[in-house]
Every structure is written in structure tokens, then in C-alpha cells.
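Protocol step 4 of 6: structure prediction from sequence.
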Amino acid sequence: MELLWESIAVRNAACERERLAVRERLAVAVREYLPAGSRVWLYGSLIEPGRFREWSDIDLALEADPPEGGIMDRVGLAILEQELKADATVMTEAARLARERLADEHPGHLSACGYELNRLSNVLEKSFERLCEAFENHFEKAGDDHERLLERVSLDLPGIRPRFLSPEFRSQVRELKSFRHFFWHAYDPILRSDRIAELVADATGVSAAFPTWIRSFCDAVRAELHG
């Protein structure tokens, strides 16, 4: 139990560091895409210490519509990119802690490791939802929404958006999502060290590849906007 509370404290500290980092990256993106002198208001969890979490969105308001046609598309992409980069940071941290917890010899180390795997999977799913909401307006949640979400981000939609999830990682992502469902709903889960080790390897691979997915996706969208 002590390891679990330590994981929660580490997570809270990481979220606060990422809140501050997102604010800095967002300021750079806004200055790049909006005319000089534009006023922008931030609100929500991004401005309040202790409220920013892995699933938090970036909430902002502009004083007026920008004068240049199509600039909102570029601003929207810049915001989405910062949100995804924040997700990538949290996923990298969760994967690192999962590896450390797996290597620990203390009682409860598998539960603490499972907590980090669950956290990583939560962030991954939220990032997929961000993409669907940004480019397809919504994603309706139903009984099979986890699998449908996985299928959606694996699709290349000409005229709407490129594929985000690399096909070779689809099975690893599915395994992580399945574990999250088990870990979240089981009353007293029995965790096998060999199975947890496989999931940690999946989490490490996915978190390492995630920044590449962001870069490829955003570069493709920018090329479309500038074309």
C-alpha cells in the first residue's frame, strides 16, 4: 500500500510539472499563429494548481476571431499538438514508474505497477478521444466504444485526417486497454508477475513510439492546411 501512495504522490507532482510546461508551450504556439496583440484567456484546470490531470483539456478563449482565413485550423492544431505532447509526457513517466515498480521486491509492487499501467492506458484513450473530437466533432460512447475508438484512430480518412495509430502497435494498445478494464473493475485482482512484465513491455514500446505518431500526424495535417 505504501508503494501505491507513493505512486499517487509522484503522479500528482508530475501533473503539476506538466501543467506549467503546457502553459509555456501553449504561449509559444499562440504567439506563432495569432496576430501580435491578440488577447487570449485561459481557464479551467490549466490555471489552477492541483486540478490538472492526464485527461485535462486545454481551455481558452479569444477576444475576437482572427482576421486571416483558416487560421483557426492552425490554432486548433497547435492546441491539439500541445495536448498530445502533454499526454506523451505522462505516458513516458507512467511507463518508467511501471518498470521500477515491477523490479521492486516490496509487498504490493505488482499492484503499484498495475496502477501505472492503468494510468498510461487512461491517457492513451483520452488522446484518441481528443483526435476524434477535434477532427470528427464527437465520439459517441456505447458498449463497444473502446474497440471502436481503436478502429477509428487506425483509419486514414482522406479529406478529414490521416491515420494516427501505427498498425504494428494495435495489438499492444488493445492489450493495455483490456488490462485497464480488468484492473478497474476487479474487486481483488490477482496479478501474475509474468503477465504484468508483458504489459510493461507493451507500455514501454507504445510510450516510446507515441511522440513519433504525434509528429507524423501533425506534420501531415499541416501539409494539408498549407496546401
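Step 5 (inspection) to follow. Residues 202 and 216 are 21 Å apart (CA to CA).
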